[in-house]
From TrEMBL:
The chain crosses the membrane at residues 448-472. Residues 345-425 form the Apple domain. GO terms for biological process: recognition of pollen. It is found in: Membrane. This is Receptor-like serine/threonine-protein kinase. Residues 528-813 form the Protein kinase domain. Residues 25-154 form the Bulb-type lectin domain. It catalyses: L-threonyl-[protein] + ATP = O-phospho-L-threonyl-[protein] + ADP + H(+); L-seryl-[protein] + ATP = O-phospho-L-seryl-[protein] + ADP + H(+). It is a single-pass type I membrane protein. Residues 290-326 form the EGF-like domain. InterPro entries: Bulb-type_lectin_dom (IPR001480), Bulb-type_lectin_dom_sf (IPR036426), EGF (IPR000742), Kinase-like_dom_sf (IPR011009), Pan_app (IPR003609), Prot_kinase_dom (IPR000719), Protein_kinase_ATP_BS (IPR017441), S-locus_recpt_kinase_C (IPR021820). Its main location: membrane. It comes from the Eukaryota.
Length: 838
């Protein structure tokens, strides 16, 4: 009996200490309950998990902290948004792999405070899950046998601390976006107003955002560090930057894991690397991201450069001048800088090197990681839209290629940075100072060369000026003698008015157009005979003509009865005269005589895109290579309108009938009657008169009258899907569903059979991956919300690269009017359909 009593006592003692023994381990299983006061400790006793109270707060949170560091340094928090008001918190792992934090509620109830929601992504067949605190500080859920990787891990959900081994960036397959979100304050671990994240538009770079506004940028990664961040190479850390079609992330590792080192974002949004010093028992800052006036994103505006050691801090890059001198002198730099001398690509141009600067924002960049700097320079020279280029990786003499298009943003002087080569007019490229490595005595000969070159350039400039004056005098002389075909005084005043209006809006840029008399046009079109009529639109007809010199032209004749057409005629004359691009139709001149108003274009022998893709016989003549060439050309043309042209233009009527095809099937965007010009600071506009063509109009424009660049992106997406399928969006029908073309394409994409959208005759000869990628891009362009659609610069990059793409959201599904369309024949892209639902 006494023996039994002793055994009972021993059993009770063992039972009482068993929970404490279990909680000193680094794992927890579904049959265990983890209560407030218990802790898990990593195998190396570096990290500890448990419930804690931050600072002066009275609330309890589940978190991970350094076990041997005092004061407590918390590196991860579970229930950031749902604090526990007392010590009733419990933590457990469920049989389905989910982690769950609960707390006591009223009337002895239990409430769920936080869950990992692992069950949403884990099969119900998960057996015996185990939660474990690793020596890296990562809390993971895995199968009990250790196979199959992690079901869930805290490293995927960082708070304010970036630990060694943690990935910062995006999983392009699952969509996992690992962002830093600092605490609101030292007493409140809930997410504050700052967030740091990796942006994968263009070449990846790191951004910091306050609320909904981006405030700072670091990057791109240059092989050593994020461009613009301090480069403190040392033997304590190793760095890794991974960028492939599956994921983009930065990660660092500690050479000596026993010496804690972290990257931390404080509640004020500052980045710091902190090292723990055992001798003094304190965290010491090893470096912090540069915090000064120039840290603000694009503080000096487009093409401006910030130098924190100068006063004022902002200046224009060499070769540029302030866009608004009055604002600039008042230290209002947001309008930025413009070129001193406009480019005349590819003539009289070169590249100037800017050293030790932070590279510009790469969201509008193109990249190739295998090219040399020489190949990169050649690629930029060949593309007149290319503004600048640089190496991606600065190691081993440099490698990779980054190209920028349009204005350059967020440039600053930074030590230990890299070189940027900017396209400039030759007159703005100054001769560089002597190389410090040149031999003694060589400066004298170099000075002689400089003087000789300067004198030569001056003579060349004088000759050019004299020739220009002679040509201008000849032009004025020709205008004095009035021929029977010369425009009347009223006509000259009309054209002069248009020129004055343009000059007010665009820095006195001249419009150089030929004037065609009514007699000339009438003769070339056989007096506007029906045999010469190519088609008819809402504002008039289009005729094919042949001039006396044999040139073929297309004549857009404004209907005398069309009151709306006058404004569109003036608008088209005003805008397209200033545009020059291989994927835009060329305006040759105009005629405005009596009641006649006409625009004269180059003639396109293959007429328009709709003639080919919507005709069963002609459609078979377009193989996949040709169709992709057309898609890519249209994208380039729209990019020019939005970003690279002298004006920022939204077309508003992109459709298959407004895409003309030349002899070589090169696409030419036409019909700018409905186009709108935007100023640099404008992103969108509203109208009470909605114009355009059904089937190509985005929802925000059709329903609210709001249009922007993203309106053209939507229309382009419709065009892409029409070109691939050979079907019209409007009036589309399918035997299996009643969707429009966009909805049908999206359903096929969701079901993994996107290739079924392709015209049947091309399926055997196409490159399947390119077709599916093009459909994917088209669906990204027709997403319902404008903010979700990519910019045209991003679209062009998507076509030019093979990187992973974001998943498209459901497109704008309209209840389509399936009645047959009116008989509209597209003619040199001048159909003029107007929709006025209000």
């Amino acid at each position: 009996m006494e023996a039994l009593h002793k055994f009972s006592v021993l059993f009770c003692v063992l039972f009482s200490i068993l929970p404490t023994y279990l909680m000193q381990q680094d794992t927890i299983t579904p049959d265990q309950i983890f209560r407030d006061g218990d802790t898990l400790v990593s195998a190396d006793e570096m990290y500890e998990l448990g419930f804690f109270t931050p600072g002066a707060s009275r609330y309890r949170y589940l978190g991970i902290w350094y076990k041997t560091v005092s004061p407590q340094r918390v590196v991860w928090v579970a229930n950031r948004n749902t604090p526990i008001q007392d010590s009733s918190g419990e933590f457990r792992v469920l049989t389905n792999g989910s982690l769950l934090v609960t707390a006591g509620g009223v009337n002895n109830t239990t409430i769920n405070v936080w869950s990992s929601n692992t069950s949403l992504v884990v099969s119900s067949a998960t057996i015996n899950p185990v939660a474990q605190l690793l020596s890296s500080g990562n809390m993971v859920v895995r199968g009990s046998n250790g196979d199959g990787g992690y079901i869930w891990q805290s490293f995927d959900y960082p708070t304010d601390t970036f630990l060694a081994g943690m990935k910062f960036g995006k999983d392009l397959v699952s969509g996992m976006d690992r962002r830093w979100r600092p605490w609101k304050s030292a007493d409140d671990p809930s997410p504050g107003e700052y967030v740091a994240f990796m942006d994968t538009n263009g070449f990846p770079q790191l951004f910091e955002q306050k609320g909904s506004v981006r405030i700072a940028r670091y990057g791109p990664w240059n092989g050593v560090t994020f461009n613009g961040m301090p480069n403190h190479a040392n033997s304590v850390l190793t760095h890794e930057f991974v960028f492939d079609d599956k994921e983009v992330y930065y990660r660092y590792e500690l050479v000596n894991s026993s010496a804690p080192s972290i990257v931390y974002v404080n509640p004020e949004g500052s980045f710091l690397r902190l090292n723990w010093v055992n001798r003094t028992q304190e965290w010491l800052p090893y470096w912090n991201a540069i915090i000064d006036m120039c840290s603000r994103l694009s503080v000096c505006g487009p093409n401006g450069r910030c130098n924190p050691n100068s006063s004022p801090a902002c200046s224009c890059m060499e070769g540029y001048v302030p866009q608004n001198p009055d604002e600039w002198s008042a230290s209002e730099w947001s309008s930025g800088c413009r070129r001193r001398t406009p480019l005349d690509c590819p003539n009289a141009e070169g590249f100037r090197v800017f050293k030790n600067i932070k590279l510009p924002d790469t969201r509008r960049s193109w990249y190739n990681r295998n090219m040399t700097l020489g190949e990169c320079a050649t690629a930029c020279k060949r593309n007149c839209s290319c503004t600048a280029y640089a190496n991606i990786d600065i190691r081993r003499g440099g490698s990779g290629c980054l190209l920028w298009y349009g204005d350059l943003f967020d440039i600053r002087n930074v030590d230990e940075s890299q070189d940027l080569y900017v396209r400039m007019a030759q007159s703005d490229i100054t001769i560089l100072p002597p190389d410090s490595n040149s031999k003694p005595g060589s400066n004298k000969s170099r000075k002689i060369v400089i003087v000789a070159v300067s004198i030569s350039c001056s003579l060349i400039v004088m000759v050019i000026l004299i020739l220009a004056m002679v040509c201008a005098r000849k032009k004025r002389t020709r205008c004095v003698v009035k021929s029977p075909d010369e425009p009347t005084i009223d006509q000259k005043e009309y054209y002069s008015m248009e020129r004055r209006h343009d000059e007010e809006e665009d820095d006195n840029d001249d419009i150089e157009l030929s004037y065609f008399s009514l007699n000339q046009i009438s003769k070339s079109t056989d007096d506007f005979s029906n045999d010469k009529k190519l088609g008819e639109g809402g504002f008039g007809a289009v005729y094919m003509g042949v001039l006396d010199d044999g040139r073929e032209i297309a004549v857009k004749r404004l209907s005398k009865t069309s009151r709306q057409g006058v404004n569109e005629f003036k608008n088209e004359l005003k805008l397209i005269a200033k545009l020059q691009h291989r994927n835009l139709v060329k305006l040759l001149g105009y005629c405005n005589e009596g009641e006649e108003s006409m625009l004269i274009y180059e003639y396109m022998p293959n007429k328009s895109l709709d003639v080919f893709i919507f005709d069963k016989i002609k459609s078979s003549t377009l193989d996949w290579t040709c169709r992709f060439h057309i898609i890519h050309g249209i994208a380039r043309g729209i990019l020019y309108l939005h970003q690279d042209s002298p004006l920022k233009i939204v077309h508003r009527d992109l459709k298959a009938s407004n895409i003309l095809l030349d002899d070589d099937m090169n696409p030419k965007i036409s019909d700018f009657g409905l186009a709108r010009m935007f100023r640099d600071h404008e992103n969108e506009a509203n109208t009470n008169r909605v114009v355009g063509t059904l089937g190509y109009i985005p929802p925000e424009y059709a329903l609210e009258g709001t249009f922007s660049e993203k309106s053209d992106v939507y229309s382009f997406g419709v065009l892409v899907l029409e070109i691939i399928s050979g079907k019209k969006n409007r009036g589309f029908s399918h035997e299996k569903d009643s969707d429009n073309l966009l909805a049908h394409a999206w359903r096929l994409f969701e079901e993994g059979v996107a290739l079924e959208l392709l015209s049947a005759h091309m399926r055997d000869s196409c490159v399947e991956s390119k077709v599916v990628r093009s459909i994917h891009i088209g669906l990204l362009c027709v997403q319902h919300h404008a903010k979700d659609r990519p910019t045209m610069s991003s679209v062009v990059l998507m076509f030019d690269q093979d990187g992973a793409l974001p998943l498209p959201k459901q497109p704008a599904f309209f209840a389509q009017d399936t009645r047959p369309e009116a008989n509209q024949v597209s003619v040199n892209g001048v159909t003029m359909t107007i929709l006025e639902p209000r």
